[in-house]
Design goal:
Strand content: 35-45%
Number of helices: 1
Radius of gyration: 37 Å
Length: 602
């Protein structure tokens, strides 16, 4: 029979003085000091162990054999013990792990106490709990079979014992929470001074495959905290997925009165648990939830494994919908950044929907370059998102609000003179939906600017067509040259409510002082598709400027004039706007609108 080799790693926790060997009741060692001889001192054969580059305690024996590390602790009536272990192999009878939780001797062949064991032949490897009396062991209980059958066998273990001798065993393997493995009651031994022992049983090929970290013992204080609802998501229009901050006792979830949605008198028709994720509850409803609305759910009556019951634990949820045409709009573009700076595109959710930007394609159709957004990001109504390859550059060069949503991604190159920015949702490999598309041009910048480097183009009004040339202007230099994440400096609020074409003011002063710098002309029509021709004359009837030449109008919008012709500002004086609006059936209407170009008095 092949000989098995035993190594005894003994870890002790001290609070009293026991000769020259200090005895403690609480202990925590994550091996970050890189030294197993101090804080605490590990006795026995420390030469066969190392602290590796991950600051874990690792077996590093020269060959199969016996090595010993030990320490002693004062065991309170109620304590909690935890550690991380990894066996970088599939456990077996010849290669397994024993952890003595309480032992009255370091010679385990004669010891009294309790230990756990991991490792057996076959595929049923689980956590087993033993009582040992004078070195003779008997099985008290075991956990879920097969959880340690694969390589590597690794887990965080947490064990609690109360004064009545109730032992609770918890494991955390792949999830971000501990789940209860099993529970045993035994109170035969309760030593005031005890040894905590880790025994590695291994062949020579496993002499460096045992790892340990984050070992602690502390006084156990029973969990009295009720489970809390941390999040709700919708997997479809009729199904909710509830996530709690700890595993939930299954029998407590099935009362549909536990789940109250504020202001909505509906209850789940089906309630399901998730065996892989015991902190998850799935609710299925008869009718679909509506989009564009935030629902608030209050959960009561759901319990954890210790009987703690949640009361009015709240979380919000909403339906996430696909973006359709003009649900999202291009609201601001920086295509000529400062030297070594970064372009950005700002998009605005003007719809009532909650929209996930993941999968949205940002494209420059003029160069056939594009990039697909890969991260989840939900935009609510009125939310702005700034898409750029370098958010830090934007923060350095512009004021940004704390609420800004940055999406960091590579960008399709944007030419400094002209180009295109498009938002596209891919339905499939061959189908796509154009959400919004903007053809920009550096000529759209204000004539007042001497240099447009680092100055963005801003959309004036989200309700006016994207490619209406009057709907874009340079960001004010007083606002810093760009406004990523908040309302545009050149925002224009539509004022008229009746059909027709109107001057919103009859006097303007094109002096770039931020006050009435442009002539504003608004229109509201019965439908889209009318043609507009608009010409400006001076008070003597001389032609000054062809402002609009047979351009197609939207249903509503505005036209602006900055008082420049051929890069020169016109003189102060009285001017006439002559316009004609022509419908598809040939009908037309027109008129004259006088206005004044003024200058600021000094």
């Amino acid at each position: 029979m092949k000989k098995s080799f035993y190594i005894f790693l003994i870890v002790s926790f001290f609070s009293l003085v026991f000769g020259s060997f200090p005895l403690i009741s609480q202990f925590n060692d994550n091996f970050s000091d890189g030294d197993i001889n101090i804080n605490p001192e590990w006795r026995g054969n420390p030469e066969n162990f190392i602290t590796n580059n991950l600051y874990q305690l690792q077996l590093d024996a020269p060959d199969g054999g016996s090595s010993l590390l030990y320490t002693e602790y004062s065991a309170p009536d109620s304590f909690e013990l935890g550690l991380y272990f990894k066996m970088d192999f599939s456990p077996s009878v010849s290669n397994k792990l024993r952890i003595y939780l309480m032992s009255d001797k370091t010679d385990i062949s004669k010891a009294n106490g309790y230990f756990i064991e991991i490792g057996e032949n076959g595929s049923l490897d689980n956590l087993k709990f033993y009582l040992t009396v004078n070195g003779i062991s008997s099985l008290l209980g075991s956990g879920n079979p097969g959880i340690f059958s694969d390589a590597p066998a690794a887990a965080f273990i947490r064990i609690t014992k109360n004064g009545l001798g109730v032992w609770n065993f918890y494991t955390k393997i792949n999830n971000n929470f501990f789940s209860q493995d099993f529970l045993i009651k035994d109170n035969q031994f309760n030593f005031s001074g005890s040894y905590f022992i880790i025994q590695c049983i291994y062949t020579s090929t496993r002499k460096d495959k045992f790892f340990f970290d984050d070992i602690y013992i502390k006084e156990y204080k029973p969990d009295k905290k009720a489970p809390s609802l941390t999040s709700i998501s919708m997997t479809d229009k009729k199904t909710l997925e509830l996530i709690f901050d700890e595993p939930i006792e299954e029998t407590s979830i099935y009362n549909n009165g536990n789940y109250i949605i504020q202001s909505v008198n509906i209850f789940p028709e089906q309630i399901l648990n998730d065996t892989l994720f015991p902190n998850k509850v799935i609710l299925k409803y008869k009718d679909e939830f509506s989009g564009g609305r935030i629902y608030s759910m209050y959960v009561s009556g759901v319990e954890d494994f210790l009987g703690n019951t949640c009361l009015n634990s709240k979380a919000d949820f909403y339906l996430i919908e696909n973006a359709e045409k003009e649900d999202l709009i291009i609201n601001e573009v920086l295509f000529n950044p400062f030297s070594d700076g970064s372009d950005f595109i700002e998009i605005l959710n003007k719809s009532e929907k909650f929209i996930n930007l993941k999968g949205l394609m940002i494209s420059n159709s003029s160069t056939n370059k594009n990039v697909i957004l890969k991260e989840d990001q939900i935009l609510r109504k009125g939310d702005y998102a700034c898409i750029t390859s370098d958010p830090a550059d934007i923060v350095v060069n512009y004021y940004v609000p704390d609420s800004i949503i940055f999406i960091e991604t590579s960008m399709p190159a944007l030419n400094d003179d002209k180009g295109n920015v498009s938002l596209i949702r891919l339905n499939s490999v061959s189908e796509s939906i154009m959400i919004d598309s903007f053809d920009y041009n550096s000529d759209m910048h204000s004539d007042f600017l001497d240099d447009d480097e680092g100055i963005s183009l801003e959309r004036k009004n989200p309700l006016v067509r994207t490619n209406d040339r009057f709907n874009w202007t340079s960001c004010s230099t007083l606002a810093g040259g760009a406004t990523p994440g908040f309302i545009n400096s050149g925002y224009y609020e539509l004022k008229i409510e009746e059909e027709g074409l109107f001057l919103t003011k009859r006097i303007f002063s094109p002096d770039d002082d931020g006050y009435e710098d442009e002539l504003e002309i608004e229109y509201k029509l019965a439908e889209e598709g009318y043609l507009l021709n608009a010409v400006i004359y001076d008070s003597k009837g001389r032609f000054i400027n062809q402002l609009v030449n047979n351009e197609t109008l939207g249903k509503n919008g505005f036209i602006t004039w900055d008082g420049f012709v051929d890069d020169k500002k016109v003189p102060v004086g009285i001017y006439i706007l002559l316009f004609k609006i022509v419908g598809e059936n040939g009908t037309s209407k027109g008129g004259k609108k006088p206005f004044v170009v003024a200058h600021k008095l000094k």
